[in-house]
Amino acid sequence: MRVLWLREGLTQKELGDAINVKENTTVAMILGMEKDGLLTRKRDEIDRRKMCVYLTPKGRDLEKKLMHIAPEINEAATKGISKRELEKCLMVLHHVSENLQTIDF
Questions:
Q1: N or C: which terminus of the chain has fewer CB atoms within 10 Å of its end residue's CB?
Q2: Residue 74 pLDDT greater than 80, yes or no
């Protein structure tokens, strides 16, 4: 969602690339968020094959509700974990993500 708060109108593929998720997973995620009224998809005016993703007012309003508590959530989630441990964890998770990208479901 944060990606769309920063830059709307991305194609489904661009959104998937931005969050490092395969396109079929991105589509499933988009459908769920669309069903919840958080975003909408519109055909690209130039390339009608592409679908662009836009936040609805409900999706846009979530930024105000969630972003001010994000630092508190991050602090609670990482309490007692050293910077080195967090860096290692992120490195491992990135590696896991890369491994999963090679799987064709």
A1: C
A2: yes
